[in-house]
Design a protein that fits this description.
Order of helices and strands: EHEHEHEHEHEHEHEHH
Number of helices: 9
Radius of gyration: 17 Å
Number of domains: 1
Number of strands: 8
Structural class: alpha/beta
Length: about 260
């Protein structure tokens, strides 16, 4: 079994996506996802938020409910400065909501996750995974948040986007090493193939394997963003090639088991 624990859907004719480059400005639907997953041998997926919109979260839960089991869970957006359960009252198909996320990487303050209102909101999200989309300079604040909410469940999206080939790489390496010492976080092997300096990516991936280990790594395609570099089956195939040195049980954990456990699929 393969679980794609990180992908998106969108329709630019219905909603604005401020971050979206023109090359991605086309609809990507459940039908498109079904075709791509069938080609790549992916069994289940986790649909992840794209904008700061409670309406999108509700739509994604409805999309999951209508997907005939393909989309097994949703990571939706909530305001990370307010009580989370209050924001989710009355959410239809809430059983598909497995996690919440805010695009923290867009916050200028590297210590945004240390804010008392943010910590309180994250603490209130008990029972939901908190996906962390962060920059490398925000990793110390991530560690502080995990310490402040030790019974929470956290996922580091895209390995914190290792800034290979830049002056920030040493700080990223130190930050992920320190973060991995916390047992309440797993790391997604996702969104890596669209990073700059692909020729330098292998050592960064090896580092993530070393510090998190195969029992705390989760596979995701980051489709359709990934189409900037590779098509869906190629992302799956290239990720599988990264796992060649693992045992069969370890590969199964990264490709499916860890996602099933983390997101309670």
């Amino acid at each position: 079994m393969i679980v794609d624990a990180h992908h998106h859907l969108w329709d630019p004719s219905r909603r604005e996506y401020p971050w979206m480059p023109p090359a991605l400005a086309a609809p990507f639907t459940t039908d498109d996802l079904r075709r791509e997953t069938a080609l790549a041998g992916v069994d289940r997926t986790v649909l992840v938020q794209t904008v700061s919109s409670a309406a999108e979260t509700a739509e994604f839960c409805a999309v999951a409910a209508a997907s005939d089991g393909l989309i097994a869970g949703v990571v939706g957006w909530v305001d990370h400065t307010r009580d989370v359960p209050a924001q989710l009252e009355g959410l239809a198909h809430a059983e598909f909501l497995r996690g919440v996320r805010h695009q923290v990487e867009d916050e200028p303050d590297p210590d945004w996750l240390r804010r008392p209102d943010v910590v309180a909101a994250v603490r209130s999200a008990h029972g939901l995974v908190v996906d962390l989309l962060v920059r490398f300079d925000q990793l110390p604040a991530v560690a502080a948040l995990l310490d402040a909410v030790p019974d929470g469940s956290f996922v580091l999206d895209h390995g914190a986007k290792p800034p290979v080939g830049t002056d920030g790489y040493a700080a990223w390496r130190a930050g992920t090493t320190e973060l991995a010492r916390r047992e309440n976080v797993v790391c997604k092997l996702s969104g890596l193939f669209t990073l700059d300096h692909q020729e330098l990516l292998a050592p960064a991936v090896d580092h993530l394997f070393t510090v998190f280990g195969p029992d705390r790594l989760v596979f995701g395609t980051d489709w359709p963003v990934s189409t900037l570099a590779l098509d869906y089956p190629a992302v799956v195939a290239r990720t599988r090639s990264l796992l060649d040195g693992l045992s069969e049980d370890e590969r199964s954990a990264v490709l499916a088991g860890n996602a099933v456990r983390t997101y309670r699929l």
